[in-house]
């Protein structure tokens, strides 16, 4: 049995922590940058749903989708952990005498988001490797070609 290193789920799952590294920079710097990062991630999901090719090839587009899904799950879990931390320690409004350095906060934020995202990405890529993407794409294109219209009954897709 030949193992393809380019389809190994444990190696490909490293895309999620790499993508979340950029997200950690955005989230720890400014709330607006964090919101823009989340919107860009949702844009990647929207491009996948509308079958807009982000990169060339079916497999890389699927990987982009899996990375976006895993990253959003990591962000949500990171926010939940942040909320639990605030409930336990309480929100301090006083001086900024935090025992955690900015680098430590960056690392903890990245790890809280990356660990669950990596695990989910391994699972999703493992399932992706079992699929026949070319056959699925052929079936989708056939269905798209056989669809008539998209508007009022008098209107045809090609012309009036």
What is the strand and helix layout of this fold?
Layout: H1 9-12, H2 15-29, H3 31-49, H4 58-89, H5 102-129, H6 133-146
Helix pairs in contact: 2-3, 2-4, 2-5, 3-4, 4-5
What does this structure look like?
This protein has 160 residues and is mostly helical. The protein has a domain at 10-90 and 100-129. Helices cover 70% and strands 0% of the residues. The protein is built from six helices and no strands. The chain has helices spanning 9-12, 15-29, 31-49, 58-89, 102-129, 133-146. It is elongated and about 65 Å long. The chain starts with 8 loop residues before the first helix and ends in a 14-residue tail after the last helix.
What do the pLDDT scores average to?
84
Distance between the termini: 56 Å
Secondary-structure class: mainly alpha
Alpha plus pi helix count = 6
Low-pLDDT stretches are: none
What's the shape? elongated
Structure keywords:
single chain; 160 residues; mainly alpha
In a nutshell, what does this entry contain?
The protein is mainly alpha-helical and 160 residues long. It has helices at 9-12, 15-29, 31-49, 58-89, 102-129, 133-146.
